[in-house]
Amino acid sequence: MDELLTKENLEYRAMAREIAEKHVRPIAAELDAKAEYPWPVVRALQDAGLMGVWIPKEYGGRGGGVMNLCLVVEELSKACGGVGVTYAVNALASFPIIVGGTEEQKQKYLPDIAQGKTLMAFGLSEKASGSDAGSLKARAEKRDGFYVLNGDKKWNTNGNAATLYSIFCSTNPDRGGRGVSALLVEKGTPGFEIGKKEDLMGIRCVPVHELHFEDCHVPEENLLGGKEGYGFKHAMMTLDLARPGVAAQALGLAQGALDLAVDYTMKREQFGQSVASFQGIQWMLADMATKVEASRQLIYAAARGIDAGAKHVSKMAAMAKVFATDTAMSVTTDAVQLFGGYGYCKDYPIEKYMRDAKITQIYEGTNQIQRLVIGRSLIKEAAAGQPRTQSAEA
Ligand code: CAA
């Protein structure tokens, strides 16, 4: 319902929709087949001033917050889930600077991120540290004005396209999660190598790489927030802000697949009539559309709560992520079903939606971890005697 969106929301959505239809949809299949980074789309987003939607105005961004970020991600993902994440990952990786950076770090890095001159990647996971993010092994030791970083990172979305990386590492292994710190590492820093590119099932236009650090000398002033030991908290706060963006990617995929399925079933004739005229098909479409709309409202509520300064956003962000991404998987799978045999081959765009959707249930915290976050929040709220009917407390 457009009436529930502000004038600003509608403007962002219209700009992103135009870019998606003009610059993304026509090349989505080719980007997927060639696993090519969508540079023309980045340029179009730059020209439209959309690269800095979530970045505060005082640092050269548009101050559009998480809500407008979600609207842009949703529109791009309707045309291509991979393009949606190449864009959204800049928000994921720059949120640490926004939530935990020093004034100097914000002034130095955010304006170029806002203009799309700097693309970013987020380095939290490692080969043996995924859901248990606090168990990471990359290590940084302070020496002569530098943090000397050693270790490897896994699943770095935007891996070789980025020029700035938020890297989580331990500055004090004896303290576990409380010994984690974040470093802002620039591409080209000696000792920093981009490693293996993953051959992915979906979102194939996104370069996902391993990163290697060997005696990589990161200037001391690039310690996020200027204090050691805050990295885990900053990572968690970042994920709270970023998870609605993954949910919006899933929403775009689900809506995009639903739109194609409605069109296809109206045109496809069997038994002398369109398959959409069969009640069994209409019921499928109705269930798909209802779940898509429920996802949308949950995401927008989480995003609006974050932008309004709600304090306890983990639960809502996790709910939006889990519901929208499970919806994307079921809706895109049903969409393939509605296309029948044609849905299973690459002559039609629909199978890509299903492949792109799967990762949204996995990254930025698996949906099992989201349920853990929700469950822990419920217990914490009950133990604190907090009201349990509000969606996002200010
Ligand atoms: N905000 C602020 N602080 C938080 C927090 C939050 N949302 N959640 C936890 N913390 C704090 C806690 O208060 C605690 O602080 P103290 O040490 O001061 O007590 C500390 O962090 C540790 O918290 P927990 O004991 O809850 O931590 P845990 O080890 O049990 O882990 C977890 C919690 C939720 C499972 C967490 O590890 C997690 O979110 N895991 C998933 C990681 C993830 O999402 N990875 C994806 C990486 S990005 C990606 O996918 C790639 C990409 O590029 C797209």
The mean pLDDT is 96
Biggest sheet: strands, sense, closure?
4 strands, antiparallel
CATH level-two architecture of the largest domain? Up-down Bundle
CATH class of the largest domain: Mainly Alpha
Query: What's the helical proportion of residues?
Result: 40-55%
Strand order of the largest sheet: 2-3-7-6
Quote the beta fraction.
Answer: 5-15%
> Bound small molecules, which ones?
acetoacetyl-coenzyme A
Low-confidence stretches: none
- Topology pattern, helix = H, strand = E: HHHHHHEEEEEEEHEEHHHH
Helices, by number, come to 11
Strand segment tally? 9
- What is the CATH superfamily classification of the largest domain? Butyryl-CoA Dehydrogenase, subunit A, domain 3
Radius of gyration: 21 Å
Describe this structure in words.
The chain is built from 11 helices and 9 strands. Strand 2 and strand 3 (146-157) form a beta hairpin. The protein has 3 domains: 2-118, Butyryl-Coa Dehydrogenase, subunit A, domain 1; 121-228, Butyryl-CoA Dehydrogenase, subunit A, domain 2; 232-383, Butyryl-CoA Dehydrogenase, subunit A, domain 3, CATH 1.20.140.10. Helix 7 (231-267) runs antiparallel to helix 8. The chain is 51% helix and 14% strand. Acetoacetyl-coenzyme A binds next to helix 5, strand 3, helix 7 and helix 11.
